[in-house]
Design brief:
mainly alpha
């Protein structure tokens, strides 16, 4: 992944493939599948960083604001229409967000679970019926 990102033209070879070739054995190049799987893992790692999580949250502003407890979402939307109001509140965000975010996620997740389940059901069935024997 690093070679691709930096545009470095080096051949990447896994240790098992290298060792087998040294002893005269050949088997299919695992790199395309390894790269594909690593790209998924790399994207997941980025999502778990503070910036990755912030980027994810940025795609969900309407849902996150609507999920704020105690009518705070409506209040935040109203404050957003008053020039300078949110800038004045900005110093309070580091205190408010850690208290609000767990409540927001508790309210948001029950609504998202149905969407997630509908997105993963058929791929999971396909994997279990057809793909599982190819991945063992």
């Amino acid at each position: 992944m690093t070679a691709d990102k930096k545009g470095v033209p080096i051949e990447v070879q896994d240790l098992a493939h290298f060792a087998a070739a040294t002893f005269g054995y050949t088997f299919p190049d695992p790199n395309p599948e390894v790269r594909k799987q690593w790209a998924v893992f790399d994207a997941f790692i980025k999502l778990l960083t503070p910036q990755g999580f912030a980027d994810l949250m940025g795609t969900m502003w309407p849902e996150l604001i609507d999920a704020m407890p105690l009518g705070m979402g409506r209040m935040m939307r109203l404050l957003g229409k008053i020039p300078g109001a949110l800038s004045l509140m900005k110093p309070m965000f580091p205190v408010l967000f850690p208290r609000l975010l767990p409540k927001v996620m508790d309210r948001l997740m029950p609504h998202m679970i149905g969407d997630v389940v509908s997105l993963i059901t058929q791929p999971m069935i396909d994997y279990l019926q057809d793909g599982a024997q190819n991945h063992t």
